[in-house]
Design a protein that fits this description.
about 450 residues; alpha/beta; Purple Acid Phosphatase, chain A, domain 2; 5'-nucleotidase,  domain 2; 2 domains; six-stranded mixed β-sheet; 15 helices; nucleotide binding; Metallo-depent_PP-like; signal
Length: about 450
């Protein structure tokens, strides 16, 4: 006798709520259909559902996302790096306090090396016919960043191996929720033959019909809620093992829209704006920005980063600042609108020779129109590089109006984005100090309140 198990999964929604009403309707309808048919159905999210680029997620510090997951009827979720390292410690520690689903994650611990009380390394679910499904989860190990926020993250594949050795004793089917990326998912399938299903995310890969690696089926649904994943397992009830596995994706744009869809999407923005309506400062003048040349607002942000980090000099790309700040009252929403990125300030220690090479590289015109996605960047293009206490004069570079000394040690203030990618190899390899949990928008708000103290600001950060 065969039991069919139905699994629906999402990953890397990144608070793209424009797709959420359709996703919720599909999931609710499918759950209802399978329940009427007496079939077992499970819903999982693989992390990065929260993204603070959206004002609703910023205003609720992610708790609004949890309400949406509750409404859709999820059984379990794991966390991605956007939940893990873009929220302050206490915000993550309380994020799931009203969750009506399980939070599964094997490789997150607090500073006492204990798992927080809101998470479990694995969970065993039992189907209507008694099949035991073990669900275990791991997330990407941004070790240093987790430590700065008061967490410890262990090596995911090693931790997964520990949990599987225990889980194997009690279950018939094993499902891994993996916020590690496609390459590690393939590695899991090769290292652990007992794993039946790997539901993936992090690298935003799209597996239209799944991918078979050895005995495992890999499934993933891209990004931004553009797809919803579906895995079907056929279980031989005598052998208690999967005899057939298949996967497909539902394209969200082709799904029916619920009534009131556009109004609901708009309401998320309206509520976010309301939650971020706190007044920060009154500007006596409009601060403009320009992606292609120097501008007051980008220059002010660069100066703010330099001060915040205690640096000798600073630079950043103008494309970070998405719009002007208009004269008059500036709210948290206004700052969030122009700097939605979950990007932190960073201090880099470099030799003069390394700094010289980096600064010369920033002059390459290729950067200005370069389109960029990921690494925390939520804009469109890089734009021109903007500098503070850095000056170019023909072949000479000046730091604080003094010629750059190749054998000197310098402290460069910049953004963490440059340390994750391969923009500048010297930065990637250098000693770094990350400033967390503050984002660029927090630093700009702090600077504005210092530059315009007579504005009688209404609140502090």
């Amino acid at each position: 006798m065969i039991e069919t198990i139905h699994i629906y999964h999402t990953n890397d929604v990144h608070s793209h709520f424009e797709n959420w009403p359709k996703i919720r309707l599909l999931l609710q309808q499918r759950q209802q259909m399978h329940n009427i048919n007496g079939e077992s159905v499970f819903l999982f999210d693989i992390g990065d559902h929260v993204d603070r680029w959206h004002p609703f997620s910023e205003g609720t510090l992610g708790k609004g996302n949890i309400t949406l997951l509750n409404e859709a009827g999820y059984d379990a979720v794991t966390i991605g790096n956007n939940e893990g390292i873009t929220l302050p410690h206490e915000a993550l520690n309380t994020l799931y306090e009203n969750a009506q689903f399980d939070v599964i994650l094997a490789n997150l611990f607090n500073e006492q090396q204990l798992r927080p009380n809101w998470v479990q390394p694995y969970k065993v679910y039992t189907t209507k016919n008694g099949v035991k499904i073990g669900v275990v989860a791991v997330t990407a190990p941004f070790t240093k960043l987790y430590e700065l926020l008061g967490w410890t993250i262990s090596e995911p594949l090693e931790e997964l191996g520990k949990q599987l050795r225990e889980l194997n004793k009690h279950v018939d089917v094993i499902v891994v929720l993996s916020h590690l990326g496609i390459h590690d998912d393939r590695k899991i399938a090769k290292l652990f033959p007992e794993v039946d299903v790997i539901l993936g995310g992090h690298t935003h890969h799209v597996l239209l019909d799944g991918e078979y690696v050895n005995q495992s089926i890999l499934a993933a649904a891209g990004k931004y809620g553009r797809y919803v994943g579906y895995v079907e397992l056929a279980i031989d009830l005598e052998a208690k093992k999967a005899v057939n596995k298949s996967a497909l994706l539902f394209e969200t744009s082709q799904l029916p829209a619920p009534s009131g869809e556009m109004n609901e999407i708009q309401q998320y923005n309206i509520e976010g704006k309301r939650l971020l309506s706190t007044k920060l400062v009154n500007l006596p003048e409009t601060l403009t920005t320009d992606w292609f040349t120097e501008s007051p607002l980008a220059q002010l942000l660069c100066e703010a980063i330099n001060e915040w980090c205690g640096a000798d000099c600073a630079f950043l790309n103008a494309g970070l600042v998405l719009d002007h700040l208009q004269r008059g009252t500036v709210t948290k929403f206004d700052i969030h609108r122009i700097l939605p990125h979950p990007i932190n300030p960073c201090l880099i220690t470099l030799t003069g020779e390394q700094l010289h090479d980096i600064l010369r590289a920033t002059l390459d015109p290729k950067w200005i129109n370069m389109e960029l996605k990921g690494l925390g960047f939520r804009g469109r293009i890089m734009g021109k590089f903007i500098y503070h206490d850095i000056r170019f004069d023909q072949q000479q570079i000046y730091i604080k109006n003094r010629p750059l000394q190749l054998d000197h040690i310098y402290k460069l203030g910049t953004i963490d984005m440059y340390t994750f990618g391969h923009f500048f190899p010297h930065i990637h390899e250098a000693e770094k100090q990350y400033f967390m949990p503050e984002f660029l928008r927090d630093v700009l708000a702090w600077k504005l309140q210092n530059v315009y103290p007579a504005s009688k600001r209404c609140t502090s950060l």
